């Protein structure tokens, strides 16, 4: 059999990218990025101009198809490979990124009668406007002693399926009624590719409280939340839930024509971006924490037992690699915080100096910030610009910068923001390790390790652990291609298991980031200070962040909730 290939498509927050991979050794032959034409929709809806409230984040489902339409033919063209040698396609997605569809699988937002209602659109993972629903889910589950709660670190996030679906019911009951199903965007795209609606066990497990043995929480639980939700899982979340690497069926003739591949090739069921990255860095055993570092960070870890860990996002049997319990935790903003600083808060002279030096503002600030020793800025920050995902699971928390003086420089603030996110990761590493899910080594993938060496050194110093970095620049897409190879199977030139695929296709770079002992010592002290602030502002001693947020909301009234911006 000649060389065989698969395509992995990674659906990120701002763009989608396709990667064509040689299945013999994981070589990435060609890649292409398509920025989402509508980006993240967080101010006004397309066409109708309806204004969105604070904490909303939506996407346009047509953008996902546009990624396939543009990027798949482009990687085929760049590589010159015959479509006959491409045996499968797989995708990974941000999650929970969900949408209401009608009985024909059409997104409601694409139907003119619903398009002016924000609730008909795709709710992106970082849509944080369902916090009230999440709070009530958590109170009710705790009161009822629901056994699922510890599996999610004690709290269900507002980012996830049940809170988002309930927000739709509360604020737009007509959209809720008209929705035949709520689907993860990952599952919707697979439906478009294969013609089959299948729910993947990864998003169902991590984001929709589904358990391999117990299924969804029982109806009584949903009824106690709201009688109208009693049938939610039997109706709008219904459907077959299948393991990662399952072939959803062949590529449809219509899609094959649109994207230039052969009809009938394997289409792997959807996967979560960060989870797909784990086998793609070669991690298929416990003790190795994978950090998917980009806009946010997802932390993934394998364990042999189901343990309880404070504030983790979840533990799902077979959720990442079959045969292990897959653990997930995360920070809801990391690169996003640095971007906020660069876009909103650096003085003009920094932008001018960066341009003169031929560097991006990030690169210029990194260079300047590298000249400081740990502790030398006198600054400390709490990295909650987009709430706290782990370990506090509270999207109402906000950022804090402490220690500024009239002499504080932009590069010092930038360094402090890098450090704050490293301290956030340390909290997560400690939570796992101290709860019996050991963390010995760190693996990093995603955009940030390629972009910022200072950041990576700080993470090694703050966690006092060596960090290996993925060789691939498109690790989740490589993982998606690996799962496509599994969906195709060894007989077709793929693999029979993801462990086999990882052995042959995954790679890390030779150079690693090792902790520097003098830095470790200073960061240990700073971490203790960070922990004090973390507990004080995050655990209820001082709810000033929430009071400020409430005042802000009140002062912004009357908010034109669904009013027209024009
Ligand atoms: N040199 C840099 N140092 C640190 N962060 C950077 C740098 N350049 C870009 N970023 C941040 O990287 C993030 C994008 O990461 P990336 O992994 O490419 O995207 P995504 O999370 O969408 O997959 C943005 O939030 C941006 O602020
Ligand atoms: O929440 C998850 C995975 O569980 C991610 O999809 C989400 O953090 C988005 O990741 P990116 O920062 O876009 O890589």
From TrEMBL:
Pathway(s) it belongs to: Carbohydrate degradation; L-arabinose degradation via L-ribulose; D-xylulose 5-phosphate from L-arabinose (bacterial route): step 2/3
Annotated keywords: Arabinose catabolism, ATP-binding, Carbohydrate metabolism, Kinase, Nucleotide-binding, Transferase
Record-annotated Carbohydrate kinase FGGY C-terminal domain positions: 290-488
UniProt catalytic activity: D-ribulose + ATP = D-ribulose 5-phosphate + ADP + H(+); L-ribulose + ATP = L-ribulose 5-phosphate + ADP + H(+)
UniProt keyword Ion transport present: no
Annotated ranges, domain Carbohydrate kinase FGGY N-terminal: 5-277
CDD domains, per database record: ASKHA_NBD_FGGY_L-RBK
Entry GO MF terms: ribulokinase activity
EC number(s) per entry: 2.7.1.16
Entry's family note: Belongs to the ribulokinase family.
HAMAP family: Ribulokinase
Name of the protein: Ribulokinase
Species for this entry: Paenibacillus gansuensis
Gene this chain is encoded by: araB
